[in-house]
Amino acid sequence: MARGTLLSLVPINSATRTASVHNKPSWAVRAQSCLLFAACSSVLFGCSEYRPGSPSSTQLTSTSVSISPIVSRITAGQSVQFAAAVTGSANTVVSWAVNGIHGGGTTTGTISSAGLYLAPSNAPAAGNVTVTATSVANGRQSASATVTIQNTVAVSPASVSLAIGTTQQFTATVNDLANSQVVWSAGGIPGGNATFGTISANGLYTAPSVAMSSAVAITASDALDSLASATATISVFDPAVVAAHDLWLTGVADAAASYGCKDASVQQQATESIAEVVNRFGLTAGEGSCLVLWPISTNPEVTRYSFAWGGLIDGKDILYISDVSQMMIWNGEEATGN
């Protein structure tokens, strides 16, 4: 057979049993020989795919990716730094995606090539997104983390004292945006009730007809994210009781002097609990100071004043004045006045 001649195999017909010989250039001989070898190798040893830059079978099985933190909770517009570690490969570079989108997007939040995630300006409807780090060396290996995004709610005013039966307008913002959709509640009850007062969908609060012994919590919750909320407090008082208290106080100075009090300037306010006023008193009281407690009686004609020694505050004897013959002093012990 002459040089440069290629013998190509063809199916052998039982009738002819022949093989064809064609004259071809030497480069074609070498190329077709490679194809012939590849075809034979495929039959004998099985096929395997090879693509330039693709990971080897060793890389596929040994490469792994980890991510931290696994779980994060942030508010809208905030950021969190992620870190990814690749083992089993010299190439430790990863690509970042949010909810399957490379680099993220406007509604899901974005993530940089360095793993810095920036939440969107409003929390997504689902409340969370998935951040994924994928190995560049082996695209089949990845790790994911969950980010819960919560909106920020603010209520104004934060606190207020309100007479029974009167109203107060509250406003709420979500992510610093006014006129946002929120759900209002009073005393933990959506819309409130007769006991705690009522509040409309627009945030207009109406105080109950009876004074409250403790402050009422007014809460605005994001309509799309119930976990995002803010709370204001209202102290509801009865003006008649306040008036009676003011009249009662006019006689306190003389009563305090008769008990030897040198200073009766600290007086319990209508919105203060005993614990709160005692704490305030303890910060300023000197020896011979008297703490004037809110009278239990609402009768402005009451002129009887009683007292009890409340023990020591910072080594000083403190005198308490009230209009009842027996009272519970701040340390929980009963003391009888005169």
Helix and strand topology:
Layout: E1 5-8, E2 20-23, H1 26-45, H2 57-62, E3 64-68, E4 71-75, E5 79-81, E6 83-87, E7 94-98, E8 101-102, E9 104-105, E10 109-111, E11 116-118, E12 128-135, E13 142-150, E14 153-156, E15 159-163, E16 167-169, E17 171-174, E18 182-186, E19 189-190, E20 192-193, E21 197-199, E22 204-206, E23 216-222, E24 225-237, H3 239-249, H4 252-258, E25 263-267, H5 274-284, E26 289-292, E27 306-313, E28 316-322, E29 326-328, E30 334-336
Parallel strand pairs: 4-13, 15-24, 25-26, 26-28
Antiparallel strand pairs: 1-2, 3-6, 5-11, 7-8, 7-12, 9-10, 10-11, 12-13, 14-17, 16-22, 18-19, 18-23, 20-21, 21-22, 23-24, 27-28, 29-30
Keyphrases for this structure?
30 strands, 5 helices, alpha+beta, disordered N terminus, Immunoglobulin-like, disordered C terminus, 338 residues, five-stranded mixed sheet, 4 domains, single chain
Number of helices: 5
Instruction: Work out the radius of gyration.
Output: 41 Å
How much is the average pLDDT? 74
Biggest sheet layout: 5 strands, mixed
Helix content: 10-25%
Low-confidence segments:
1-54, 296-305, 324-338
Q: What kind of assembly state do the chains in view correspond to?
A: single chain
Number of strands: 30
User: What structural class results from the helix and strand content?
Assistant: alpha+beta
Q: Report the β-strand fraction as a percent range.
A: 35-45%
- For the record, the count of structural domains works out to 4
Major sheet strand order: 4-13-12-7-8
State the shape: elongated
Ends: how far apart? 137 Å
